[in-house]
Design brief:
Elements: H1 4-14, H2 23-31, E1 36-39, H3 46-56, E2 60-64, H4 68-80, E3 85-88, H5 94-105, E4 111-114, H6 116-119, H7 122-130, E5 133-138, H8 160-164, E6 170-174, H9 179-188, E7 195-198, E8 206-212, H10 216-227, E9 233-236, H11 240-252, E10 257-260, H12 266-278, E11 283-286, E12 301-304, H13 311-318, E13 328-334, H14 336-348, H15 353-371, H16 376-383, H17 395-398, E14 402-405, H18 407-424, H19 430-438, H20 443-448, H21 464-476, E15 480-482, E16 490-492, H22 496-500, E17 507-510, H23 514-517, H24 532-552, H25 556-559, H26 562-571, H27 576-579, H28 587-603
Parallel strand pairs: 1-6, 1-7, 2-4, 2-5, 3-4, 5-6, 8-13, 9-11, 9-12, 10-11, 12-13
Antiparallel strand pairs: 14-17, 15-16
Helix pairs in contact: 1-3, 2-3, 14-15, 18-19, 19-21, 24-26
The structure holds adenosine-5'-diphosphate and zinc ion (ZN).
Length: 608
């Protein structure tokens, strides 16, 4: 049964007409004092699930979040909504701390953000004991998972909340979706009684593209220039070096790009992050150190120029695109070298066999996604145990690749490797093997007398690129492995035998022509275009918003989201009353900015 107070808060404070998905059920459950474990993809609206109950229930909602760098922005966004919010973390001086503590004790705070290490100090626990707590929200709850990519040991201490405040409802939230993570969260945070809410993890507005890596800089440039000119986005790389090089390269090409990785000083990191959030249209080139909790809604693309290690990580990273629900792109370029490199990294990693097997299985799933000929999104969601129909918004749906019978090609490749090893005791990497198959008279072939091998020149029917694709897929399917000792040399696996003996047919993916051009298919424009007149209003509103944001020193989206500005541009409200009906315009923002927006529209002379 819907709690009318929740709907009232949603409309008055946030300016939204209705709850989405499970929000209503979650909010009602928390208001009634229950615990909840919420799994929702990025952008689905997790924050409202605790913000609304915190406003309805008596006392302060305490939000535990590892994202100290973002707390200021979160509090600013709430303040813009007229919500009384504050944070406690290590960036504050004692005076600010004292003021926040006073406000909390006086019951003047609706929401209080705290870092977990801070929360667990005796001083903080004492403070909380003396005030009234509406609820505990444990954000980024997957940080409690030791196997996950964001493990924070302090999170393990949070199980004490339940012992100390058994009557206060707790809500744990995450965008990480696997069952394992979910069980770990429930167990480690003592959420045995919690009701679980698992949303669909589909993000239909994100278009997935995975392309063969050829000349990755050129391919990236093409993506940025042709499909995302002027857009904000993130480019993920595996190494710090590559981040620096790529950011420099983009800047030299006239694209405003900033680097972000753990090797940069914390001041530089903070500054680059803050610029990315505040300025329009910047490209952040980063390692995976960048991103958790980045709630910039208008990231229009996430590009990976190296293969991610797992689908889980990949889905989190790509999920940072298009939080505002408007169209966005997730683009990944991957090639043979990525497979070789990742397999080697796993072999060389510290940790026991079980650990390595786990990494290997994660990589295999990722490679399976790259090489699939069916819908990418289906494949992704399948990984999280959810099924959907083919999406119509990924490269494979938009331009289906073909599959071909690669059994004979695979046999040629495998027997070349076998012969070299058997007859000569030699192992080689991809380049030389392909030269042998294609019968190229290179110095290396001459030097080693490889032209006399029976396999020399048996693969002239396929191009270099096609052979690389075969090799990659053999590696992806563990029909070949990268030798542990050799320098990226290739060796057969137990499974190779069945293919060699002809006991197994092998269907392979054929790269569509677009791969060689590096461009991606386009069936409809990424941004549903506004009518020309509305576009002009939208631009004017954006300029107006930029001015306000600059003068307040806040990110533009804290003032209004693009989605709200677009709606205003279409509705052309001529009164505060009609403006108040636009999604995202609550009472407080209407008071702060209503007149100014109406003037802005009026100045364009277009109001009806
Ligand atoms: P998450 O934390 O799950 O990534 P957010 O809480 O940041 O997502 O919400 C994503 C976006 O969706 C925000 O812009 C938020 O204001 C908006 N949103 C959330 N719930 C609703 C709703 N019921 N109606 C309209 N917009 C919503
Ligand atoms: Zn699809």
């Amino acid at each position: 049964m819907a709690d009318p107070r929740a709907t009232e808060v949603l409309a008055r404070v946030f300016g939204y007409e209705s709850f989405r998905g499970d929000q209503q059920a979650i909010v009602d459950h928390i208001i009634a004092g229950g615990d909840a474990l919420v799994l929702m993809p990025t952008g689905a609206g997790k924050s409202l699930c605790y913000q609304v109950p915190a406003l309805v229930r008596r006392g302060t909602g305490v939000v535990i979040s590892p994202l100290i760098a973002l707390m200021q922005d979160q509090v600013d966004a709430l303040t813009e909504l007229g919500v009384r919010a504050a944070f406690l973390n290590s960036t504050q001086d004692w005076q600010d701390t004292r003021e926040v503590e006073r406000a909390f004790l006086a019951g003047e705070l609706d929401l209080l953000y705290v870092a977990p290490e801070r929360l667990l100090t005796e001083r903080c626990l004492q403070l909380l004991s003396r005030g009234t707590i509406a609820l505990f929200a444990i954000d980024e709850a997957h940080c409690v998972s030791q196997w996950g990519h964001d493990f924070r040991p302090e999170y393990l201490g949070l199980s004490m909340l339940h012992e100390r405040w058994p009557e206060v409802p707790r809500i744990a939230l995450t965008a990480t979706a696997t069952d394992v993570t979910r069980r770990e969260i429930a167990e480690r945070l003592a959420l045995g009684q919690a009701r679980h809410y698992v949303a669909s993890f589909d993000r239909p507005n994100i278009r997935y593209h995975i392309v063969e890596k050829l000349d990755v800089r050129r391919q990236l440039l093409q993506l940025l220039r042709q499909e995302h000119a002027g857009d904000a986005g993130i480019v993920y790389c595996l190494s710090r070096n590559k981040v620096d090089e790529t950011a420099e390269f983009l800047c030299a090409q006239g694209i405003a790009a900033l680097p972000y990785h753990a090797g940069l000083g914390s001041a530089v990191r903070a500054q680059n992050q803050s610029r990315f959030l505040r300025e329009d249209g910047l490209v952040m080139v980063a390692t995976i150190a960048f991103g958790m909790g980045i709630d910039k809604p208008d990231v229009r693309f996430v590009a990976h120029i190296d293969l991610p290690k797992s689908i889980e990580g990949y889905y989190q990273e790509t999920g940072r695109a298009g939080r505002d629900g408007l169209p966005a792109t997730a683009w990944l370029a991957y090639g043979l070298q990525d497979v070789v490199q990742q397999r080697r990294m796993i072999d060389e990693s510290n940790g026991d066999d079980a650990f390595r097997r786990r990494l290997g299985a994660q990589l295999d799933a990722m490679l399976g996604l790259c090489e699939t000929v069916s819908c990418r999104r289906q494949r992704l969601l399948q990984y999280f145990g959810q099924s959907i129909a083919p999406c119509g918004n990924c490269d494979n749906c938009l331009q289906p690749p073909q599959s071909w019978d690669g059994t004979v090609a695979a046999q040629k490749m495998l027997s070349a490797i076998y012969r070299l090893w058997k007859e000569r005791g030699q192992r080689y990497g991809a380049g030389h093997l392909i030269d042998i198959l294609r019968g190229k008279q290179t110095p290396r072939v001459a030097e080693n007398g490889h032209a006399t091998l029976s396999v020399f020149g048996i693969g002239q029917d396929l191009s270099d690129q096609a052979w690389r694709s075969v090799l990659r897929q053999l590696l992806a399917q563990s029909l070949l492995m990268v030798d542990q000792e050799g320098y990226g040399t290739l060796a057969l696996t137990d499974e190779s035998r069945a293919v060699l003996k002809g006991e197994r047919t092998l269907m392979l993916r054929r790269e569509p022509d677009r791969a060689s051009r590096g461009s991606t298919p386009r069936s409809k424009p990424l941004q549903p275009d506004l009518p020309v007149a509305a576009q002009a209003v939208f631009e004017a509103l954006r300029a107006w918003r930029a001015g306000i944001a600059r003068s307040h020193g806040k990110p533009a989206y804290v003032i209004f989201h693009d989605a709200t500005l677009r709606e205003i541009a279409l509705a052309l409200p001529d009164s505060l009353e009609s403006l108040s009906h636009v999604n995202g315009v609550g009472v407080h923002k209407l008071e702060s900015y209503g007149e100014s927006i109406l003037e802005c529209i009026d100045a364009l002379g277009m109001a009806t």
